[in-house]
Amino acid sequence: MTTEIENRIHISAAGEYVFQLAERVENWPYLLAHYRRVDVLATRPEGRIVEMSAVRPPIPVPVRWRAIQQAEPDTKRVLYRHIGGVTRGMEVEWRIMPAGDGVDVTIVHRFAPPWPWPGPWIAREIVCGFFVHAIADRTLAGIKATAEHSGTHIHLVTKAAGSPTPSHVAPEQPRRRRHLPGPWG
Known about the structure:
By secondary structure, the chain is an alpha+beta fold. The protein has one domain: START domain (Alpha-D-Glucose-1,6-Bisphosphate, Chain A, domain 4). 23% of the residues lie in helices and 37% in strands. It has helices at 15-23, 28-31, 119-148, and strands at 3-11, 35-44, 47-56, 61-72, 77-84, 91-99, 102-111. The chain has a 7-stranded antiparallel beta sheet. Strand 5 (77-84) and strand 6 (91-99) form a beta hairpin. Helix 1 packs across helix 3. Mean pLDDT is 86; it is low at 165-185.
């Protein structure tokens, strides 16, 4: 059984800029307080391999996953297929559509793990309902706040696979990231 959840927000900003914010995930730890780390592990013909770690707000439960990211600038879509972590097999689609004074951004998560009972319930209620939905809501709110922030654009960098994390991304100094002990990075 496939679980599908959708998060949506309106952002009063140019679609191209919102697409850049959504696609350049390597900047997220500097822009989104709940993201702890994003590493671009490789760039392949099928997309970028990214490893991401975040905390589930408001309870700081750490989560981590690996995904193949495909960006479609012409259609303003960013696609992910999770290839590591509890969410292995999850399909994610970001859609950025013109609307009024900006864009509507929708994130759709589809998850159908091959887990035996009570796996479908765990996927629906805990993985998607408790973790994914909350993290996606916070991500959209952060992208909105960044995109609408006093009409100024933040300089975004594109990090090549294996290159060090940039030390300066935004006009302000990047916030200090906390290290999460254990297997979360």
